[in-house]
Amino acid sequence: MSDTNQSKNACELILALDIEDRADALDLLEKAGPELRWAKIGLQMFTKYGPDYVRQIADLGVNVFLDLKLHDIPNTVAKAVESVGKLPIQMLTIHTCGGKEMMEWAVKAQENINPNLQLLGVTVLTSMDQSSLDLLGIQQTPADRVAQLASLAKDAGMSGLVCSTHEVQTLRAAFGNHFTLVTPGVRPTGSAAGDQKRIMTPAQAREVGSNFIVVGRPIYGAEDPAAVVASINAELQR
User: Fold this and answer.
1) Residue 192 forms part of a structural domain
2) What's the pTM?
3) Which one of 8, 31, 69, 108 is the catalytic residue?
4) What are phi and psi of 79, to 5 degrees?
């Protein structure tokens, strides 16, 4: 298992398996090659195939980031963390906007069931921008909202966050290396942005202080996924 408590300058690639079919996902992992160390399973695939799918991916030798973005009353989230924390996963997401008490219960459940599991608090989704927050009646910029939720997460005992690459420098300035930072919305140079509004290249993400970057479509949409993985890894290591 990879150590998620990395230094600010270390950055690893996570492949988002946000595709429709289990067989296609397994085929993609084979095509991605031996340089790929992490895979993300999201809500779509987890609800379709369940825990056995998680075990199947883990059996391939990759670390699993289970991205469920749990958000409910404290007891329900804690019980959910206890359930999925028994699976062979290294990362799990909850929503920080669920509040301090919910996060505290989640942290306690994680520590009891799987002390090595990295619990990550989702801040502001990378598909959201200022207009999205305005429509929700949130009178903050995305950066201010992320900082507020991060402070709440720290007080609740969280040690990891999911955020946009554009908030990483602010979080590093405020909290140093307290948080493991996982950043979606990363696109290799020349790739389409898709539905992501706040994006950076892998090199830019590493430079600002991301510990992990999440990349999906530029890899699984490529003719040679292994070549894209190798190219991203090389960019992260330069």
Assistant:
1) yes
2) 0.88
3) 69
4) -65, -35
